[in-house]
Amino acid sequence: MPEPKAEIRLPTSELRDDIPFFTKTLGMRLDMIYPADNPQIAVFSGHGLRLRVETGATEPPGTIRILTEDPEGFADGARALTAPNGTRVEIDEAHPPLVMPETVHSFVVRRLADQAPWIIGRAGMQYRDLIPDRLGGSIIASHIRIPDGGPVPDMVHYHTVGFQLIFCYRGWVDLVYEDQGEPFRLDAGCCVIQPPEIRHRVLFASDNIEVIEIGVPAEHITTIDHEMTLPNGPAKPDRVFQGQKFVHHKVEEATWSPFRLPGYRSRDTTIAANTGNVAGVHVVRVGDGAPVWSSHNADILFTFVMDGNVTLEGEGRDPYALSPGDAFVIPPGMKTRLTGPSDDLELLEVSLPGAFKTEGTP
């Protein structure tokens, strides 16, 4: 049996004017036209679309978007046209370049106790926004949870991003990635980066799974890949995706070293080394020495409190007592200090770029 065909109906008042527009200007094919003695209906196909232009149809004329690799070579370079029947036609790039907005620096403190709403997002997951102003669109930081574990209704997909981190905060989740071998479990305290356009899929989650997801820029496109099946063969750990390698950082393999701030130590997730210094990710705990006032020159410096308590002090501001689930962003040049950390304090710090300069004073 042949597959059913779908078509979109558009209105017209004079079909003879529409035929040359759809066939010559837009390069579509005329498939049907009738009645022969006084045509009232024509069917066109092309660019993955089937249109039925019908005299006297009651629908509004609508808008057609045509995506092409060569917008300048399509329709004589016009980016917007109007068909004789009133349909608007927009011509755009099939693969527009990723635009990285300039960071609008601000000091941000986001507390779990503020009860910001959890929003239902993709695949039924619940999202809490950790940077409401998104620093001018340069970054999105989300606290994501799935209360009821089990199979996740996800599909093979990819993101057009500059950088993306998934850090497992609570519970565990089973994942599979393009060219990374068999599915694996991401446990609490572990993380992965999703290099630009790597195909992947979320398979199964524990009850009350929680992750922290960082995406740069804030608005980026998620595309479903209906052709690829994962896993897709043996692992290729050295494959580079637009300058970045896949990283699966495991907490049990981590090495702890002195942190950039006195009084703390950290484990480096190796993300800076595998992204060409696009971003760096550290897990931070209490170490030796006393906390100091410091400033930095990173473009973005985001911190999430995973466990324990600490006080964030900032020049000219009241202290913030922070607890698990709280997050903050420190803009470049601002002097701050983390004081009174509890013994069980654990922080997640994400910086862009991965390497930057810190200046401290007692």
Secondary-structure map:
Elements: E1 8-12, H1 15-25, E2 29-34, E3 41-46, E4 49-55, E5 63-68, E6 80-82, E7 88-93, E8 108-110, E9 119-120, E10 126-129, E11 140-146, E12 150-151, E13 157-160, E14 163-170, E15 172-177, E16 184-187, E17 191-193, E18 200-205, E19 209-216, E20 221-224, E21 240-241, E22 244-245, E23 247-249, E24 256-258, E25 264-268, H2 271-274, E26 280-286, E27 293-296, E28 300-307, E29 310-314, E30 320-322, E31 327-329, E32 336-339, E33 346-352, E34 358-361
Describe the protein's architecture and organization.
With 362 residues, the protein is mostly beta strands. It has two helices and 34 strands. The chain has a seven-stranded antiparallel β-sheet. A seven-stranded antiparallel β-sheet has the order 9-10-11-19-14-17-23, with no helix packed on it. It is elongated, with a radius of gyration of 26 Å. The model has no long low-confidence stretch (mean pLDDT 95).
How far the N terminus sits from the C terminus, by CA atoms, comes to: 79 Å
Helix content: under 10%
Which strand order spans the largest sheet, edge to edge or round the barrel? 8-31-28-33-26-25-24
Q: What is the number of helices?
A: 2
The whole-number mean of residue pLDDT values reads: 95
Overall number of strands: 34
